[in-house]
Amino acid sequence: MCAHLSEKSPYKIADLSDSILYLNSDQYFQGYCVLEYKRHVKELFDLSEEERIDLMAHVCRAAKALQAVFSSQKINYELLGNQVPHIHWHLIPRFNTDPAWPNPVWSRPHPPVTLSSQEVQKRIKRIRECL
User: Fold this and answer.
1) Beta-carbon neighbour count of residue 14 at 10 Å?
2) pTM of the model
3) Which end of the chain, C or N, has fewer beta carbons within 10 A?
4) pLDDT at 9
């Protein structure tokens, strides 16, 4: 497993076979999660076909859970890796009322929104129930 993954993170939602789903600590965009691949891999083409299929199944499973919990207009999927060259998906429920709509979340500088530990656990529980 890659060294930057934390098994003890208070934001951990689920440990899947190949990846770990986390609630992003900044909840300015409610429901924003990150799905990190466990093994250190930089590019999708570095995965075998079977690994890609499994990973995409987990991406879709997580996105479907976020849609069920937050009832967003759209789920944004971001796989960038410019700052952290490790496969990790940003999964972001989007609403036509959010401050960056319809532009990417990156286009809206903002102060981070940190939830109370109780609210974090409540949100994580709701997402887990829908996974």
Assistant:
1) 18
2) 0.93
3) N
4) 87
